[in-house]
Amino acid sequence: MDTVSATWDDASQKQSILAPGVSTQPLAARPPVGREAILRVEHVGKRFGEIVALSDVSMSVGTGEVFGVAGPNGAGKTTLFNVIAGRFGGTGSIWFEGQDIMGWKPHRVCRHGIARTFQIPMLFSSLSVADNVRVGAHFGARKDGDERRVVAETLEQVGMSDKAGMLARHLDLMGKKLTMLAAALATGPSLLLLDEPMGGLAPAEVTEFGGLITRLNRERGITIVVIEHLVRKLVELSDRLMILYHGEQIALGPPKDVVNDPRVIELYLGTADYA
Ligand SMILES: Nc1ncnc2c1ncn2[C@@H]1O[C@H](COP(=O)(O)OP(=O)(O)OP(=O)(O)O)[C@@H](O)[C@H]1O
Ligand SMILES: [Mg+2]
User: Fold this and answer.
1) Residues near 113 by Cβ (< 8 Å), separated by ≥ 6?
2) Which domains does the chain have, with CATH numbers?
């Protein structure tokens, strides 16, 4: 069976893939070593009609952590971001800086300090790069007012200053991804959700983007949750890694342990060659 591309055509047949009595709760309840949790996802579920996109997912992300999320197509990774960021409601709780934000509208979540990028670049194509970033600066969590300075600094940070005046629709994929990242950064987030930021990029661009993620985390102290299919890159970047499979959390822990977990190899990776 091709487990990587397998989908549940009939969600009513979906069974828990965890052995009876096996609970993911101990994984989730354990705080990240040496860190306070900035985000706690507790027993989150999301259905689309008969489709169970997320089932009892729990995790906690430590302040300053890079937390990786992987899993096959349709595993619920983007849905997890959509529920955290307020695009969809769900069941369970999402604690961010001491408040349960489940069900908050996206702009409120953003102003509270959570920004995101999208799997497929979402930009105002007829606006310039700088104006796309200005939208983030205007609507975000930052209270320091000087949008022009925020835009200039953010473009500098992602290496896009020289393209500030270019229309977004004229950018290549890397340029679009960097502009979308800059717009998210301009909101002044303490938590950044990146949905497949490196998908579709050339190897040199993947290296560059990976370096940028590490710098944003280490130099700006931004906590980052990153979804990525490039598992080797995710192992390199992340402090911890979670694997989703058909809406369920099947592993969470240090990246090298997770990619060597026999169940992760069997259900997702197909080979033990990722550590
Ligand atoms: N808005 C929606 N309406 C209906 N079903 C949805 C919606 N969004 C997601 N789904 C379904 O929920 C499941 C999880 O989808 P999701 O996009 O979260 O997966 P993913 O892990 O991000 O996959 P990929 O790696 O392909 O991006 C899939 O079965 C998908 O078809
Ligand atoms: Mg997705």
Assistant:
1) 96, 97, 141, 188, 189, 190, 191
2) 5-113+191-269 (3.40.50.300), 125-189 (no CATH)
